[in-house]
Write a structure and sequence with these properties.
Layout lengths: L1 E3 L2 H5 L5 E2 L5 E2 L2 H11 L4 H4 L1 H5 L10 H6 L1 H6 L2 E3 L2 E13 L9 E14 L2 E12 L7 E11 L4
Parallel strand pairs: 1-4
Antiparallel strand pairs: 2-6, 3-6, 5-8, 6-7, 7-8
């Protein structure tokens, strides 16, 4: 894990790639819970028997489940001291080049693309790539936008 002393030091790291981070296993139970939370019960995510003969050879995680892991996966790559609050501000681009097979593990790398001042802190843009231990193409590539706020709360 890279520890930045403050947002100023973070700004000097534009262009730097952090990671890869540790592996995180994605099991069927997590996929089932995500399906319930999002009301997306498509068979490719939940029906192991049917999915075994389907296009991916088994159940796969929802793309949005993979995307939802970004804060946790990237959070294992760096920390910025002096930040009192971080918020997900949005995404500029997201792709799912390969399916994430249930039972696989994922980990991320993040390239710091931009750090710009905003009221109360900085806006951070990271280019995040999530790989599976199955190899091949990444399972998610996203440009994530975060706001990091410093100082005392208002």
């Amino acid at each position: 894990m890279r520890i930045f002393a403050d947002t100023g030091e973070l700004a000097t790291a534009v262009g730097e790639t952090l990671g890869p981070g540790p592996w995180e296993r994605i099991d069927q139970h997590r996929v089932d819970l995500f399906a319930d939370a999002t009301d997306d019960h498509q068979w490719i995510h939940l029906d192991a028997e049917r999915a075994a003969t389907g296009p991916f050879g088994g159940t796969i995680a929802h793309g949005y489940l993979t995307l939802s892991l970004l804060p946790a996966l990237v959070g294992r790559l760096y920390r910025v001291d002096g930040v009192r609050m971080g918020v997900n501000y949005g995404l500029n681009r997201v792709r799912f080049p390969a399916p994430l097979r249930v039972g696989s593990a994922v980990r991320a790398t993040a390239a710091i693309a931009e750090v710009a001042p905003v009221a109360g802190g900085v806006q951070l843009v990271t280019s995040v790539t999530v790989h599976s231990d199955a190899g091949g193409k990444p399972v998610c590539v996203a440009e994530s936008v975060s706001r990091l706020y410093v100082g005392a709360p208002r």
